[in-house]
Design brief:
15 strands; Pseudouridine synthase; about 325 residues; alpha+beta; globular; nine-stranded mixed sheet; four-stranded antiparallel sheet; Structural Genomics Hypothetical 15.5 Kd Protein In mrcA-pckA Intergenic Region, Chain A
Length: about 325
């Protein structure tokens, strides 16, 4: 099953690219998703398939076929969730470090998706005061239902998921257009000289190690990270980091590139970055926490912002460093 939308082109829209035009007409359809539909032949102009670069002409009749999403094959699992906000469209959770967001090779169970599926299809007995329940959007594919954006396994903090496709597309568009707010707390190795900074370096797959990302890559995508110093703690610096783009491992790669890797990062840092000079005490994981998440609710139009407290394992490290500083 699928749904079809029709758009009649007038002189005001002539010479616009078809993918850009459709995206401007419907906030729920991202440009990348429209390009995918065009590639699949689901977008026609006056009965003929076109390319994403097609320039509109006066009198064109656009038809867009939007297919129903495939049901997820991931099994629901009863795993506790720290729910910060929920209604019948969106859910915001505080992900603990160590939890994988969605199933992938080596992690087919125990993920956030497994937990979300169980949560959404097994509502508790009333009263339930955090909003409605429903399924999860299917745009992310059968392995990633509801997932609008991701956090690394060992990064803790706030993450939003969508319960329907329209909400998913709207939230994805906010991330793409940089209107969503994402702020992180990061503890880095080294004492950063400047109180604030902006890192703007493309990120792509590492040339020789395909499991890693790098700024030295053949096919990098634009990536922007901004930071402010919160506190200097001897050989470490506590930062507030703001994402302007959402590339894989972006914060970790960018901070490592300028010489200040995230403390405890075993991929982009060194052993000295997570071992303290006392026995049996080390940084357990990368000290990166998604503390603030803000977005415009797709259906109410209201801006929502949420904050998550620094988790205990990170607080323990910070307290240790502050004691040493004093």
């Amino acid at each position: 099953m699928s749904s079809t939308k029709s758009i009649h082109i007038t002189s005001d829209s002539v010479n616009q690219r078809i993918d850009k035009f459709i995206s401007s007409q419907d906030a729920s359809l991202s440009r990348s998703y429209i390009q995918q539909l065009i590639h699949e032949g689901r977008v026609t102009v006056s009965g003929k398939t076109v390319k994403s670069s097609y320039k509109l002409k006066n009198g064109d009749e656009i038809k867009i076929e939007i297919p129903d999403t495939e049901p997820s094959t991931v099994k629901p699992e009863q795993i506790p969730l720290d729910i910060i906000y929920e209604d019948d469209s969106v859910i915001v959770v505080n992900k603990p470090a160590g939890m994988v967001v969605h199933p992938a090779a080596g992690n087919y169970s125990g993920t956030l998706v497994n937990a979300l599926l169980y949560h959404c299809i097994n509502p508790p007995s009333p009263p339930f005061d955090k909003g409605g329940r429903g399924g999860l959007s299917g745009i992310g594919g059968v392995e990633r239902p509801g997932i609008v954006h991701r956090l690394d396994k060992d990064t803790s903090g706030l993450l939003m998921a969508a319960k329907d496709d329209w909400t998913h597309r709207h939230l994805s568009r906010q991330l793409k257009e940089k209107t969503a707010v994402r702020k992180y707390i990061a503890l880095v190795k080294g004492n950063i000289r400047d109180n604030s900074g902006r890192i703007e370096k493309p990120i792509g797959r590492h040339i020789s190690d395909r499991k890693k990302m790098s700024t030295k890559t053949r096919k990098g995508r634009s990536a922007i990270t901004e930071f402010n110093v919160i506190e200097r703690l001897g050989d470490y610096t506590l930062l507030e980091v703001r994402l302007k783009t959402g590339r894989t491992h972006q914060i970790r790669v960018h901070l490592s590139t300028i010489g200040y890797p995230v403390a405890g990062d075993r991929v982009y840092g060194k052993i000295s970055n997570f071992q303290f000079p006392i026995s049996n005490f080390s940084i357990p994981r990368q000290m990166l926490h998604a503390q603030t998440l803000g977005f415009i609710h797709p259906k109410t139009g209201k801006y929502l912002e949420f904050t998550s407290a620094i988790p205990d394992d990170m607080k323990k490290i910070l307290d240790y460093l502050k004691e040493g500083k004093e």
